Amino acid sequence: MGCVTLFVVFNMIWMLHGESAVETDETWQRIQQQNFVIVGVDVNLAPYGIYDPSGPRGIDPDIARAIGKLWDVEVHFSLVNYDGMYDSLLVGDVDILIAGVRPEPRRAAASRYTEAYFDSGYVLVSTTGSQPTLEEIQGKILGVVFATDGDIWAQSYLEEHPNAFTLQQYDDTEQLLSALNEENIVYALLDKVSAHQAHQQYPHLSIADEPLLSNPLVMVVRRSDWKLYAELQRAIKILKANGTIDEIIQRWL
């Protein structure tokens, strides 16, 4: 076989198998051998993480426990916050971050981000009794909480589509919800968590299924942990398909 052919074959193997052809994922080996995984969670980020002396509660800890059950390993939690969580991951204090994390391209050289397990982006909320749409709010008043990502999105949209709607800003979510409940406005833009919590208080509110502004929450592992990453991706797909993640999210929202 000629040198060129050997080179092509080698590159095909590399593209098919990537790092798995040349590296051992020691973290995944340790998880399998020692029968536990260490997950970093942020307990100051309700409803994703909530402190409890008996162990962290919330969306992220419950999803971590579901993954541990799927892998048949124990889940040990380490409490982290945004300022230090990547350091905790990179020095090996935790194996996985499940802490309301959004992907950051600048960290991609050292970290791997999974697919989203939840999109906490901004959705339309209305008092119309039907699924609100962007087309539906044309020419109407849209309420937002001042200086939130939803407010920034709405202002940016109006720059490109002048007079598409009238923007009404409120100081906080409670003030915005009062305006909706009193029918001073019919449409609002809220993050998905606030929208679902509002629905519990005001059941007549309708919430759009798809966000206008996406905010995917992902899990993070070290760049070198390719096998752990692959197994985590697989676990997320399974837990989405069997409804476990949806059930956990609905429980906390």
What this model shows, in words?
This protein is α/β, with parallel strands linked by helices and 253 residues long. It is built from 9 helices and 13 strands. The strands form 3 sheets. Strands 1, 4, 5, 6, 7 and 13 form a 6-stranded mixed sheet that branches. The chain is elongated. Mean pLDDT is 92; it is low at 1-18.
Question: Topology, please?
Answer:
Elements: H1 3-17, H2 26-34, E1 36-41, E2 44-45, E3 49-50, H3 59-71, E4 74-79, H4 82-90, E5 96-101, E6 111-113, E7 118-119, E8 122-126, E9 141-145, H5 149-160, E10 166-170, H6 173-181, E11 187-191, H7 192-201, E12 206-207, E13 216-222, H8 226-241, H9 244-252
Parallel strand pairs: 1-4, 1-5, 9-10, 9-11
Antiparallel strand pairs: 2-3, 5-13, 6-13, 7-13, 8-11, 8-12
Helix pairs in contact: 3-8, 3-9
Question: What are the key terms here?
Answer:
253 residues, alpha/beta, D-Maltodextrin-Binding Protein, domain 2, 6-stranded mixed β-sheet, 5-stranded mixed β-sheet, 40% helix, elongated, disordered N terminus
